Amino acid sequence: MDDNLKRFATRLKELRLEKGYSQEQLASLIDCPPSLISYYESMKREPGFTYILALCEVLGETPDYLMGVTEYRDVKKIAE
Questions:
Q1: 50-57: long-range contacts at Cβ-Cβ below 8 A with a sequence spacing of 24 or more?
Q2: What letters, b where the CB count within 10 A reaches 16 and e where it falls short, cover 38-57?
Q3: Distant-in-sequence, close-in-space partners of 40: CB < 8 Å, separation ≥ 6
Q4: Of 64, 60, 62, 15, which Cα lies nearest the Cα of 40?
Q5: Distant-in-sequence, close-in-space partners of 46: CB < 8 Å, separation ≥ 6
Q6: What are phi and psi of 65, to 5 degrees?
Q7: How deeply is 33 buried, as exposed, middle or buried, from its count of CB atoms within 10 A (0-12, 13-18, 19+)?
Q8: Prediction pTM value
Q9: Are 74 and 62 in contact (CB under 8 A)?
Q10: CA–CA gap between residue 77 and residue 60 (Å, rounded)
Q11: Which domains does the chain have, with CATH numbers?
Q12: N or C, which terminus of the chain has less Cβ within 10 Å?
């Protein structure tokens, strides 16, 4: 199993739950089928660039954090 994909799936689910969104609600916010969020969280599909950016915007995190490049969350969010 790809560690990067696992990290993405884990962080996506954690951030979604932190914001209080269902998979269906998050899908609606980024204009995709609800099944796509399920596929991402269960590591059945890898996200494309467009959806990564949309998820980051809705969830308020950087692509580096969501993709597991860094362990640090959005500095602006921490400062608030």
A1: 54/29, 54/30, 55/12, 55/26, 55/30
A2: ebbbeeebebeeebbebbbe
A3: 8, 9, 12, 47
A4: 15
A5: 5
A6: -70, -50
A7: exposed
A8: 0.87
A9: yes
A10: 8
A11: 3-79 (1.10.260.40)
A12: C
Q: What 8-state DSSP symbol labels residue 74? A: P
Which residue bears the tokens 């915007």?
Answer: 57
Tell me the residue type at 53.
L
7 with 64: CB under 8 angstroms?
Answer: no
Per-residue CA distances from 6 to 29, 31, 44, 47 (Å): 23, 23, 10, 12
For residue 40, what are its two tokens?
Answer: 């991402």
